[in-house]
Design goal:
globular, 22% strand, HNH endonuclease, 4-stranded mixed beta sheet, alpha+beta, 40% helix
Length: 127
């Protein structure tokens, strides 16, 4: 950390968005460890809500050697991708976690879009 203290890394999920047999699927590919600043970059919407956009831009510039304009362009691109994905109804595939978790009613950890809201998935909000 900036003050020299150590901290456990955050756990971040890597998703693949794909279409198979006419179904749109948000599939959890794997989990990775990230430092808190890099994890914040991956969740720019939350960072913006928390007033941390400047920290995200600083991290993008540091890690990638980008200018301010390049970092801001990347944030704009990320917003466009998110806006496009929100227009699609995604099934959820968590099968990569099958050795570690179970979800009642979904033994294969494949949750159709029509059932996702029942689980309170953050992509769709709760309720």
């Amino acid at each position: 950390m900036e003050d020299g203290r150590s901290r456990r890394p955050d756990c971040h999920e890597l998703w693949v968005f794909e279409t198979r047999a006419g179904r749109h699927i948000q599939r959890l590919e794997r989990l990775i460890a990230l430092c808190p600043d890099c994890h914040r970059v991956q969740h720019i919407g939350l960072a913006e809500i928390n007033g941390e956009t400047d920290r995200v831009i600083a991290k993008l510039r540091e890690v990638n050697g980008w200018t301010q304009d390049q970092a801001e362009a990347e944030l704009s691109r990320a917003h466009r991708v998110y806006a496009q994905r929100k227009l699609v109804h995604w099934d959820l595939d968590l099968s990569v976690l099958s050795e570690f978790i179970t979800i009642d009613g979904f033994p294969d950890l494949y949750i159709p879009e029509s059932e996702r809201r029942r689980l309170g998935n953050s992509f769709y909000g709760t309720g």
